Amino acid sequence: MDYSEKVMDHFANPRNCRKMEDANGVGTVGNPTCGDLMTIYIKVNDDEVIEDISFQTFGCGAAIATSSMITEIAVGKTVDEALKISRNDVADELDGLPPIKMHCSNLAADGLQAAIENYKENNQ
Amino acid sequence: MYLDNSATTQVSEEVFEEMKPYFTEEFGNPSTLYKYGRESKKALNQARQRVADAINAKPEEIIFTSGGSESDNLAIKGIAFKLAKKGKHIITTEIEHPAVTETLHFLESLDFKVTYLPVYENGIIKIEDLKEAITDETILITVMHANNEIGTVQPIEEIGKIAKEHGIKFHTDAVQSFGKIEVDVEKLNVDLLSLSSHKLNGPKGVGAIYIRKGTRLVPLIHGGGQERGIRAGTENVPGIVGFGKACELASQQLEEHYEKLSSIRDELIEKVLSTVPEAYVNGDREQRLPNLVNFRFKAIEGESLILLLDAKGYQASTGSACSSNKLEASPVLTALGLDPVDVHGSLRISLAPESDTFDIDEFVGIIAESVARLREMSPLWNQELDYDGVMCSKHGDDCRMC
Ligand SMILES: Cc1ncc(COP(=O)(O)O)c(C=O)c1O
Ligand code: FES
Fold first, then answer.
1. Whether B81 and B212 share a structural domain
2. DSSP string of A27-50?
3. Which of A38, B189, B338, B394 has a CA between 20 and 30 Å from the CA of residue A72?
């Protein structure tokens, strides 16, 4: 696989990779049949800011790297800002992904959205 | 440490030395009559004899090709087109190499019917299933000798006997077994057999097909009548010479290599299974190649494991080299009836005679550490996760996995 250095760095040293016990939003996306499954945990504070974010991923190098990257992009953003993070943003921040792996950045963006939706449901 | 010898191998020094003159001094076209041509022709004949000797065939039964894929194509299309008037039914297995499977898919588009025999958890077909599949229309049975992903060995002798009884042509892809276990066309009862040079320390882009005397097939490449009209094109003389040498060396050392490789393999299996929790071997433990093992680790994905091992200096693969650029789950592992998640957690280690220098304990330690690390990241390890309801449809149109 032709991964960029950034992808390899986030794969080898993933940021914020852990289960979060006190999360107030959790989202799981992917399909283990396809070979990837990602859970994103967020802790949103009273100002609607994502104060803490973490992930757990079963998947290829790109899936792990995109999960790691999206936690870095999203932390400190309000949930509304975070919802605007697009699939391309994740890939761009990683200096690109091999075309066949682009769906992994979809997975990360979708995972974050799912976590935010879950947070909103919890707080209605 | 290179541990992906089922994908390809390094050309050995002896093979390379043997090839060299045929690029430069001895460059003649074997079809010409003057000295240069005669030298090339002689070299071709010698190589043909070496390949024939290695599989207990006669030299006139060996046709050189560009490799295993071409040999598979030639055997299957060649027989199908030759015998189409007699019948259009072919029997194969669920775990063939794409060179076979894709050829059969192509024939299906031309109205041939194909039966794919199931393999069971052990990766081996059942003879009863084969007997039941045979019809009056059956013209060809094609079953691989040893599988390239899991290394299981099929009961070729028995299949060959049944094919013979029914007057059905029988082809086997022996690309992975050749040079690792005995390949004897008489014992195996085959009419056609595919070989490739680059899996046994020979050069890439060259191989052969064994065609039993009296077996007629339609050529794929028409032209100047080389290879008895079955495969036209000026011969790849240096490649064929290298292939011939590789065959000679492999058969001389077959038993010695078998002992050496199977003892490394067994030690590796024993140590991995006793060190790594929830680790399994894919495919039968007995009926397998001496140089290949395919492990399965719960809750992790194979590619990320390969990347971690590569970072530590060990090159292995998840399965076949062909599938590493595709995203579909391995059809071979799926055919074993594994849970889809488990299909993704595979690691194939394939050894070569030169692999005896590697430190098994160190390697097993690195596997254990890498697997543990990925499991720590995995939402599927030690957690109850109900993933049945997790959507897939949210992904974009460019998601090629669904
Ligand atoms: C079982 C099997 N058949 C056929 C092939 C194709 O051989 P080649 O690469 O020489 O075309 C391979 C390996 O690539 C193989 O493992
Ligand atoms: S993995 Fe199946 S939709 Fe993306």
1. yes
2. EEEEETTTTEEEEEEEEE-TTSBE
3. B394
Minimal CA–CA distance to B170: which of B146, B138, B148?
Answer: B138
Question: Which CATH number is B61's domain given?
Answer: 3.40.640.10
| Per-residue pLDDT tens over the stretch B332-361 | 999 999 987 888 999 999 999 988 888 999
Please report whether residue B85 resides in a domain: yes
The residue whose CB lies within 8 Å of the most ligand 2 atoms, and thus the one to mutate among A37, A60, A103, is: A103
pLDDT digits (tens, 9 = 90+) for A82-119: 999 988 899 999 999 988 888 777 889 999 999 999 99
ipTM here: 0.93
Is the full-model pTM beyond 0.90? yes
Could you tell me if B129 and B153 are in contact, meaning their C-beta atoms sit under 8 angstroms apart? no
pLDDT tens track for B282-314: 999 999 999 999 999 999 999 999 999 999 999
| Domain-embedded: residue B3 | no
Helix, strand and coil in chain B, % to nearest 5: 45, 15, 40
Q: Is A42 exposed, middle or buried (0-12, 13-18, 19+ CB in 10 A)?
A: buried
At residue B392, does pLDDT exceed 80?
A: no
Record: contact A58-B380, CB cut-off 8 A: yes
* Domain end (from B208, B223, B250): B250
Backbone angles phi, psi at B387, to 5 degrees: -100, 5
Question: Is B310's Cβ below 8 Å from some Cβ in A?
Answer: no
For chain A, domains (ranges, CATH) are 5-122 (3.90.1010.10)
Please give the pLDDT value at position B385: 67
Q: Ligand 2 center to residue B399 CA distance, Å? A: 6
**Radius of gyration of chain A from Cα atoms?**
13
Return the structure tokens found at B345.
């957690």
